[in-house]
């Protein structure tokens, strides 16, 4: 047991380094203030996987500037009638970058975002909302149909097109 202690120390150090990198990615460390107004379309729901384990929603930033997503102001939901279903933690998306939100139904927030809902493979809704004071703004929303296993539902062309069933999933990458 005594011999294992140094090994445990190394393992814990590596684990904490990985976790720290991930947390840095999810926070606004090093960001410049953005002057892009937060309004409808500033970010888009770009791709949805409803037959995964876990499911996920890919958010895309079509701007040439990083967008800060201040903690407590951004919400994601699978029910447009309940826009505040899941509050996103403080995060940011780099210019023309992606944020992949796993939807595993656990609602655990730590080094990663995991929503308190999963997506129905029989079809459902997805919405991204921004709340300031009592005003809640829809940033982007869509409904998606039943999706065959292995496919996703995404915008084509990437970030701007209408949604269609995609045969190739592309988490955190261009829909093609
Ligand atoms: Ca994609």
Q: Topology, pairings included?
A:
Elements: H1 4-26, E1 44-49, E2 55-60, E3 67-69, E4 74-77, E5 86-87, E6 91-93, E7 98-103, E8 124-132, E9 135-144, E10 152-156, E11 162-166
Antiparallel strand pairs: 1-2, 1-10, 2-7, 3-6, 4-5, 4-8, 8-9, 10-11
The structure holds calcium ion.
Q: How would you briefly describe this protein structure?
A:
By secondary structure, this protein is mostly beta strands.
Describe the structure.
- The termini are far apart.
- This protein has one helix at 4-26; strands at 44-49, 55-60, 67-69, 74-77, 86-87, 91-93, 98-103, 124-132, 135-144, 152-156, 162-166.
- Helix content is 13%, strand content 34%.
- Strand 10 (152-156) and strand 11 form a beta hairpin.
- It has a five-stranded antiparallel beta sheet, with no helix packed on it. A four-stranded antiparallel beta sheet has the order 5-4-8-9, with no helix packed on it. A two-stranded antiparallel sheet has the order 3-6.
- By secondary structure, it is mainly beta.
- The protein has two domains: 1-31; 44-166, Immunoglobulin-like, CATH 2.60.40.
- It contains one helix and eleven strands; from the N terminus they run H-E-E-E-E-E-E-E-E-E-E-E.
- It is globular.
- Calcium ion binds next to strand 1.
